[in-house]
Structure formats: C-alpha cells, structure tokens
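pls ignore typos typing on phone
pyridoxal-5'-phosphate + seq
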Amino acid sequence: MPPPVFLDYNAGSPARPEVVRAMAEALAEGGNPSSVHAAGRRAHARIEAARRSVAQLVGAADLVFTSGGTEANALALGGSGRARMLVSAVEHVSVMEAAPEAGIIPVDGNGVVDLGALEHLLKADPRPALVSLMLANNETGIIQPVAAAAEIAHRHGALIHCDAAQTLGRMSVSMSGLAVDFLTISAHKVGGPAGIGALALAHGDLSLAPLLLGGGQERRRRAGTENLSGIVGFGVAAEIAGSELHRGDTILGMARMRDRLETLALARVPQAVVIGRRSARLPNTSCLVLPGVAAETQVMALDLAGVMVSAGAACSSGKVAASKVLTAMGLGPDLAGSAIRVSLGAESGEAEVELFVEAWAELARRKGFEISPAAFAA
Ligand SMILES: Cc1ncc(COP(=O)(O)O)c(C=O)c1O
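k done
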C-alpha cells in the first residue's frame, strides 16, 4: 500500500518545522504580554516582531490578531460601522453568516464577480456601505478583480474588505495593490497553526469596533490574552512565505503540478469537468467534477484508496449538499453536487498527483464512466 496522499491544503496545511520549533519555544517560555515584568516584556516583544512579519507580507499599516479567518471576517463585517453590506455570491460561509442581510453581488459563469452589478447596487442606495469580496475562492481557487472592485467601492464612498484567507504563500498579496481597507488572513493555510489569523488594516485612521470586550489587548480592538505561541508561529510562517514568494519557484512548481494533475485527470476521465479553467486561479487549487457521482461518495472512495481531498469547502463537509459557490456560477445540481476540491502544497509532487489520478480514474471506472484507452498513454 503506498503512503497516504494529502491533497487538502486549502482545508489546512501542515505546520512548517520552523513554525513548530518557534511555537514550542514560545510555549515553553510563556509570559503574558500585558505583564510589566521581564517575562511579559519578552512576550510582548515576540508578538510585535510577529506583527511586523505578518504586516510586511501583505503591506498592512496595522493588524489585529484574531482566532482565525472566521473571526477576522466577523470583525470586519461587524466592526466597520457601516449599516449596509454588499458581499459576493461566492464568499466563504463565515462572511455570508456574519452579514445575513447583505446584498448579494452575483458572479458570472467563470466565477468572477459582476462589477457592473456592484456599481448598480452601490448607486441604488446612498447609505455608506462595506463591500466584502474575497481574493481567491476556497473551493475553486478563482481569483476576483479586487482592485477594480475597490476602485468602484471607494468612488461610491464605500469601504472594502477582502477575505484573502486562502492566498498567503500562493500569490503575492499587497493591500496597496488591491486598494482594500481591510484584509482577512489565516495562518493555517500558509504552514502556520490553526486558531490564529488577523484582520489587516490599510491605514491607521480606520475605525473598528471590537467584537470582544474586556482587557485592552490589540489596542482595544480585541480583548483577551493573546495567543502567544500561535502569533509567533504565524510570524514565522509569514517570513517563510515571504522568502518563497521572493524566489518565485514555489508558486511556479505548484502551478505546474496542478496543471499536470488536471491534464492527467481529463485524459483518464474524459467526462470530467475542471471548474474555472478560463479564469485566473490560485496555483494550487483544482475543482474537479465527476458528473452525477456525489462529492461525498468521491471523497470517501478516495479516502479508502489513501487519498485525502475534500468536497467543496471543508467547513461545510459532512453535509451532502450542492456547492453554493458552483450553484452561484450557474451549475445545475448534477454538477454542483459532484465537485471535489484537490488542493496542493509546496511539498506535493508527481507521485501524489499520479496516485490521486489513478484512484479517481478507478472510481470513475467503477461508476461506469468510459475511459478512452488512448488516454492511458497520456
Ligand atoms: C476563504 C476563507 N475564508 C475564511 C476561512 C476561515 O478561516 P479560519 O479557518 O482561520 O477561521 C476559510 C477557511 O477555510 C476560508 O477558506
């Protein structure tokens, strides 16, 4: 039996060894950053060093550490002070549920937000709004035209928040390039620990009402003793991501592996559909449809074969439902209920890709799909 194959990095990537070492050290040393004695001052200094590393990776003026991407989204949507919210139809559930009354900006068949509709929605109601548009989708990897949306939002007096939880280490992210006011990031998608994230701010004069009240931590924007080891781990993960981005080969390598996976998968299972192929996408994410075979069935069969992928968003797995993201792109239930997400990390190689394709093609064969004999040579 070959070793298990992990291709679910969008759900959470394993922590980098350097991250684990730095976290263990921070945990062992302890200290409450609010304490005035030496241990407290050391903990405080570690947090500020991590803040600089994370802020530098995305070009933030300032950031508030949170318990992850979910809380950062809730803080942006709940704390911006804007009464009116507009969110895209393909946002993560943590944005959707934080703004249940929000107006929905539709996406086209390629999964890309309709900027004309955004402008129309903003014109239709003069109340100051907050627009929330993700940078890259967690299920499909499709990248949104955030800078163009920001220009429209600002022209209409709106603020813009961008959920970039899936992007660190997978593309370069610059708050000034995107021209967004708030940016959500999460450590466990970039080789850091789960349970830590941040809401980054583009400039110092943005007001942000706290969700959690109590102590004065995070400059009164998020009460509660800081997650010291998590923040330290996030800082180290951000530094590694920054130097890999600078080198450029990690992203190119992931994109090559992802393209190879899709080419092989389509050759072995010609009826398969790759979602978003005509759109700009993250280099590591592939959303594959085996029409008529429920996503959960595929995930379970692949797991039995030792290959770990997910059905749409990990946060909503466990429920056999059609993907809301794919439904918003206009796919019917037959396709939207049959999509799996294969997401690679920097460590994923040819062997993992081939084992996945082998297992998926075998499942397709059992489900009665024709496989073109010529494809075996691909
Ligand atoms: C796009 C997106 N936003 C937000 C989140 C939530 O982040 P966290 O798991 O850190 O709360 C996720 C997690 O999968 C995500 O993919």
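Residues 313-317, 372-378 have pLDDT under 50 and may be disordered. The longest helix spans residues 38-58. more later
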